[in-house]
Design a protein that fits this description.
By secondary structure, the protein is an alpha+beta fold. The protein has one domain. The chain has seven helices and 20 strands. The C terminus is likely disordered.
Length: 355
């Protein structure tokens, strides 16, 4: 009996050692985890929003995530069953200190800062105008959300939030990035209680990381699966392909391994956007964008990966049938040494149409 107990105790101890190792492998989902790289993300692709599957689903915009072996890969926008009363603040890439840092998204009672990125479908750079919670139920603004009003009756129409924002830029700050800073309201939202990404969101990102076709090196900024009706659905009639890249794609000059910033540099305290920076927020970014991404930018935005700042920023609200996205900003502090010259990779987006 004693021997049997000892064996079981030893097996349990080994299990405790193995679990953390498995969970920390490079293939595990990185949503919400701080990652810093020397090259900026491609432009957001132009795509339409799949129809909402039913009541209680909230839209989470697609974004470029990072993998140390393959570089940037696209995580499709998708509808998820939201925690009641909570809204999603998308994550975003922000330039600072010589590299691009990822600021993870979160659920909270109000939408916080997401870098001024025009993700479309209600996320025009500041706030969220795709709907609101009323007495425990979510009501959709069909001016910017694709909803079947026969099966989803909690709807309203507010076209005043629609602005012409055709930016497909996927990062904040630096040369070519969106010049936006947190407002007082966004700073207040950042201090509220938050909930991390749902398990379905984490699994959705992980599934995207396992599909080579989702990597920018393969799709050149225009993924075949740009958006899905539900997390993890990467095939079927509810999958939407990108209509175009948000800007011309240019392969980075360095490998993903070379682009990754070491932990010692990326863990330096990053300065967050504060009230002193708010004056730089443009009016276009302050108004909620329509919903879908707009037409690809012509000329001017060549999105090679940025190794450091590069081309000028664009910000305009996307139309209703296409979408793009990114996230909450705060700028990392200076890294030990300057990063190489910026390079970003571009993908055009498509013009949204109102209505």
């Amino acid at each position: 009996m004693r021997l049997d107990r000892a064996v079981r105790f030893l097996a349990f101890g080994l299990l405790l050692l193995v679990i953390p190792a498995v969970l920390s492998t490079p293939s595990s989902a990185q949503i919400g985890v701080g990652i810093s790289v020397r090259i900026g993300p491609p432009a957001l692709p132009v795509y339409a929003q799949p129809i909402c599957p039913g009541p209680g689903y909230l839209w989470t915009p697609g974004y470029w995530a990072w993998n140390d072996d393959g570089g940037y890969y696209w995580v499709p926008g998708t509808w998820v069953v939201a925690p009641i009363g909570m809204l999603w603040t998308p994550g975003y890439w922000g330039w600072g200190g010589g590299f691009y840092a990822w600021h993870g998204g979160y659920w909270g009672p109000h939408v916080g800062f997401y870098g001024g990125i025009n993700y479309g479908f209600g996320y025009g750079g500041v706030g969220f105008f795709g709907g609101e919670w009323r007495h425990g139920g979510f009501f959709y603004n069909t001016a910017v959300m694709h909803v079947d009003t026969v099966h989803v009756t909690n709807v309203y129409v507010n076209r005043t939030v629609i602005v012409n924002n055709e930016s497909h830029v996927a990062f904040n700050g630096g040369q070519g990035g969106v010049a936006a800073h947190a407002t007082a309201a966004e700073e207040a939202a950042a201090r509220e209680p938050h909930q991390a990404a749902l398990s379905t969101q984490v699994q959705h990102e992980h599934a995207a990381s396992q599909n080579r076709a989702m990597f920018a090196s393969a799709n050149h900024g225009a993924p075949a699966v740009a958006a899905t009706a539900r997390p993890g659905e990467f095939s079927g009639h509810n999958v939407v392909a990108a209509k175009a890249a948000g800007a011309p794609y240019h392969a980075p000059a360095i490998s993903p391994r070379e682009a990754r910033v070491s932990g010692s540099a990326s863990n330096r305290p990053a300065s967050t956007s504060t009230a002193s920076n708010r004056s730089n927020m443009s009016n276009n970014n302050r108004v909620g964008s329509n919903n879908r991404p707009s037409s690809p930018a012509s000329g001017g935005h060549s999105n090679a990966y940025h190794s450091s700042p590069s081309s000028p920023s664009h910000s305009q609200a996307a139309p209703r049938t296409e979408n793009s996205r990114p996230q909450n900003q705060s700028r990392p502090q200076s890294a030990p040494r300057p990063a190489p010259a910026p390079q970003h990779q571009g993908a055009p987006r498509e013009k949204k149409h109102k209505g």
